[in-house]
Design a protein that fits this description.
The structure is a single chain. This protein is an alpha/beta fold and 442 residues long. The protein folds into 4 domains: 121 residues, Methylthiotransferase, N-terminal domain (Rossmann fold, 3-Layer(aba) Sandwich), CATH 3.40.50; 119 residues, Transcription Regulator spoIIAA; 100 residues, Transcription Regulator spoIIAA (2-Layer Sandwich); 56 residues, OB fold (Dihydrolipoamide Acetyltransferase, E2P) (Beta Barrel). It is built from 14 helices and 21 strands. Helix 1 links the parallel strand 1 and strand 2. Helix 9 packs parallel to helix 10 and helix 13 packs parallel to helix 14. The N and C termini lie far apart (47 Å).
Length: 442
């Protein structure tokens, strides 16, 4: 029997899924498989899925239906569904899509090679046999300048709208030594920027090492020049972590701090465990500790029973905090969550209208914030050629803003100082400071 030799991965959802896809690539590569140039020519097509939003699931369902034609053209192809939808829907997916071969949950990826080599007529769901799986011994290979590292998996917060605790399990933190070793290995591969990932990085704890301690240890890793992290829960953002961010020169002055809604009543229904005033006080504290920090957030429009007055309170927070960006969502009930038992009583057209007003408010402020940066200097980590102009480099500033600069003699992986001259959309455009020395790190 011929076993799969090539694979193609389609990834949906958050940064954790992007990291998991890299993890899967490493597992398959260790078994001798290589990536295909396109899904049509692959021996195995894998879809790494997301269940957080209804729209994300519907997109995958649509693609699975379309992929039936691929299977008809190549009956030997294996189609595998990975990720949160695997945990949520399990065998239901095999019944709904007869051309789907395997359904594998986030804790079952170690077994992918064996499952893919099984007899073709064996269709199965595998969620893993270790609910505490952390993949500590598997370090994804990278070819870029930046990389993700998962420091924790799962979540214990049970926000009423969120399916993550149900599909990824309870929170478990990786050993700090394992994380630091992965950072060192990535640095040896040419990685210069690390983003530490978790559903709630602030609650990281392994033995006596909390997240502030981990950040301080990460700051000591040679050849890593910038450290980011995502996502933070406001209730767990400690003063010690703010001190660590201020102390660690490699910690980027950027914080993603979801507030989700501006009404205390809605926040209680969401089970967020903080109030509007507590969030605003926290923002003020963050800015005292780290002046000039860039703040981004998540916001939901149209949560059950949300009134126009509740929504206006959300807009007030947007205007007061003046976020640099936001991930904005229209509420959709996720089966199995507490919010799914609440009346979904905000009409769809009202949800859409509120979402559009929310996006407009965020973008207006974001543009104003960018205009204030003209003539100011920032450090840019060069990542790759600009897609719009190959004579310019694209990179990101310490505040996670996209920037383009002339190519000149520099190359990806170098840190240079730029002065902002113009704003194009939401991109900074400027010149490298003549008197500034590039920070060579090779």
């Amino acid at each position: 029997m011929s076993f799969p030799k090539t694979y193609y991965i389609e990834t949906f959802g958050c940064q954790m899924n992007e990291y998991d896809s890299q993890l899967v690539e490493t597992i398959l590569g260790a078994d001798g498989m290589i990536p295909a140039s396109d899904k049509e020519s692959s021996d195995c097509l894998l879809l790494n899925t997301c269940s957080v939003r209804e729209h994300a699931e519907q997109r995958v369902f649509s693609l699975l239906s379309q992929h039936k034609a691929l299977k008809n053209n190549n009956p030997a192809m294996k189609i595998v569904l990975l990720g949160c939808m695997a945990s949520k829907h399990q065998d239901e997916l095999l019944h709904r899509f007869p051309h789907l071969d395997l359904v594998v949950g986030p804790d079952g990826y170690r077994n992918l090679p064996a499952l893919m080599k099984a007899e073709k007529n064996i269709r199965t769901t595998w969620l893993g046999n270790n609910p505490l799986e952390e993949y500590n011994d598997i370090i994804p290979a990278h070819t870029k300048i930046s990389a993700y590292i998962a420091i924790a998996r799962g979540c214990d917060n049970f926000c009423s709208y969120c399916v993550v605790p149900y599909v990824r399990g309870g929170e478990r933190s990786r050993p700090a030594d394992s994380i630091i070793e992965e950072m060192k290995q990535l640095a040896s591969q040419g990685i210069r920027e690390i983003t530490l990932l978790g559903q709630n990085v602030n609650s990281y704890r392994y033995n006596d090492c909390d997240f502030a301690g981990l950040l301080r240890r990460a700051n000591e890793v040679d050849d890593i020049i910038r450290i980011r992290f995502i996502t933070s829960h406001p209730k767990d953002l400690s003063e010690d972590l703010l001190n660590a961010m201020a102390e660690c020169e490699k910690a980027a002055p950027h914080l993603h701090l979801p507030f989700q809604a501006g009404s205390d009543r809605i926040l209680r229904l969401m089970n967020r465990k903080y109030t509007r005033s507590e969030y605003l006080e926290l923002v003020d504290k963050v800015r005292r500790f780290i002046p000039g920090i860039s703040l981004t957030t998540d916001i939901i429009a149209g949560f059950p029973t949300e009134t126009e007055d509740n929504f206006q309170q959300t807009l007030e927070i947007i205007r007061r905090v003046r976020f640099d960006d936001a991930f904005t969502y229209r509420y959709s009930p996720r089966p199995g969550t507490a919010a799914a038992e609440m009346p979904d009583d905000v009409p769809e057209e009202v949800k859409i209208d509120r979402l559009e007003r929310m996006i407009s408010a965020v973008r207006k402020i974001a543009r104003q914030n960018l205009q204030d940066l003209i003539s100011r200097k920032f450090t840019v980590l060069i990542e790759h050629k600009s897609k719009k102009d190959p004579d310019w480099w694209m990179g990101r500033t310490e505040h996670n803003r996209i920037a383009v600069i002339p190519k000149e003699k520099y190359k990806p992986g170098e840190l240079v100082e730029m002065r902002v001259e113009t704003i194009a959309g939401f991109t900074l455009k400027g010149a490298i400071e003549i008197e500034a020395k590039p920070i060579f790190i090779y």
